[in-house]
Amino acid sequence: MKKYFNILWMVLFIGCSSSKDTSDGFFLEIDSVQRVQHFGAEAGYKSVTVMANCAVETGSSREWCTSVMMPNYATDNLRITVAKNASTEARTATVSVASAEVKQIINIAVRQAGITPAVSVNKSAVPLPEGVTDFTLGVTANVPVVFDKPEWITEKAGNHWESGAKTYAFAADPLPEGTLLREGDMTVRTVETFAGVAPVPVHVTQTGAHHTRIIAHRGYWNTAGSAQNSLASLNKAIELGAYGSELDVWITTDGVVVLNHDATYQGVSMENSLYSAIQPLRLSNGEPLPTLQQCIDIAKQQTQPNKTRLVIEIKTHSTNTNNKRCVDAVVQMVNDNEVADLVDYIAFSSYVCEELIQSNPQHRVAYLNGNLTPAALRAAGYWGLDYNMGILKSNTGWVNQAKAAGLTTNVWTVNSTDDMQYFIAMGVDFITTDAPQTLKTLLNRE
Ligand code: MG
Q: Which end of the chain is more exposed for a tag (fewer CB within 10 A), N or C?
């Protein structure tokens, strides 16, 4: 309809011998509305109707804008084409239409918008399981971007920005020895700041090697000359090369931290007695009940590269006052002896665990009671879970969930080879056992 209207208009124009006619009868005209052309940032073209009865030439003031007359078109006979504007800035050009016969030039203003900056990333989280260090991000960006990242992540060659969608490659450093979890935040951001274009966060989680290791339950007691919670059982666990030697501690009324599994030994209460009342008692191998200080002294004397750790279970005392006294005394002793790297803590009491975590978030604290999920343990700042094997057999996903959360996993008390093999296959970090020699033989066969 518009086309017919324009033809009619031209006929009328010529027939009426418009005021644009030159004295020779030639004319050149473009409707004033069409003398300004707006384009978006993308490449494209628009047509303009040039009314003339003479030869017409056209040209543009900018390379990115071209104009051409379409000889066989009665209307829409001037085509103005623009290239894509890759800049965020708008730009302008002038298209001129001229005829020698009428000695007249008509300018058309061409205005092209800039691109709207936009950045998107194909993932918000990058999990790096054991042994995997390389990863990629798919980034779509129409303006230059850079990557902010932790110092342990580097960019690989070829990561220079290109407009549009591109895959960018990165590598993480291997995890430091003994580290089971490292997390960091990357951001993908524009080089220039644009309103409304926020940096895009990417969370990287690196998890480390998990290998099953041996913890001797109450020391290596199930052998000649040893006894549960004795210095002999600690020494034998060290000789065996166990990762850890578990021991149970109470605090006496006069503040001595002593080893014993139960609340009483031969009728003598641990937490309600003076140490002098405990001193005369003897274990089955003839030793007195050891103090924690004696165990620390033995642990400190180790010279081999893989030192056996003391896995200190702080027993649940009858009051939180005594629980707190015991926690404070143990932590003080560990600090005074500078053996923090030789001590892991375990407890059934969440109060005891929370006190340990609160006193130093770096404390390696594992929970024994079995009633908290890996997610809840992580949220509370635990180092690991240390659950009865029945709990882990009923909740078969917990070991993997714990690993993904960066928690260590320990299972007690696993004494049959079938159960040991079950939990080795499950991938637990530690097996606490009364048969550490059997477990060692099994692990050496793996
Ligand atoms: Mg214990």
A: N
CA of residue 432 to ligand 1 center, whole Å: 10
Ligand 1 centre distance from Cα of residue 398 (Å): 22
Cα separation, 261 vs 265, whole angstroms: 9
* 1 assigned to some structural domain: no
Per-residue b/e over 219-246, b at no fewer than 16 CB within 10 Å? bbbbbeebbbbbbbbbbbbbebebbbbb
- DSSP assignment of 342-392, as one string? GEEEEES-HHHHHHHHHH-TTS-EEE-SS-S-HHHHHHTT-SEEEEEHHHH
Question: Over the stretch 265-276, which tens digit does the pLDDT of each residue have?
Answer: 999 999 999 999
> Which of 54, 89, 112 marks a domain boundary?
112
Which domain CATH number covers 66?
2.60.40.10
What would the mean pLDDT of 200-225 be, rounded to a whole number? Answer: 91
157 and 245 in a single domain? The answer is no
Query: What is the per-residue pLDDT across 163-187, written as a single tens digit (0 to 9) for each?
Result: 999 999 999 999 887 677 788 999 9
Centroid of ligand 1 to alpha carbon of 313 (angstroms):
5
- The reported pTM is 0.59
Residue 261 belongs to domain spanning? 213-445
288 alpha carbon – ligand 1 mean position (Å)? 19
Q: What is the pLDDT of residues 63-97, one digit of tens each?
A: 999 999 998 888 999 999 999 999 999 999 999 99
Alpha carbon of 413 to ligand 1 centroid (Å): 10
Within a domain: residue 362?
yes
302 lies in the same domain as 352: yes
Q: What percent of the chain has pLDDT over 70?
A: 93
21 is written with which tokens?
A: 């006619």
State in Å: Cα 246 to ligand 1 middle.
6
Quick: pLDDT tens for 396-409.
Answer: 999 999 988 999 99
> In the predicted model, what is the mean pLDDT of the chain?
92
For residue 400, the CA-to-ligand 1 centroid distance in Å is 24
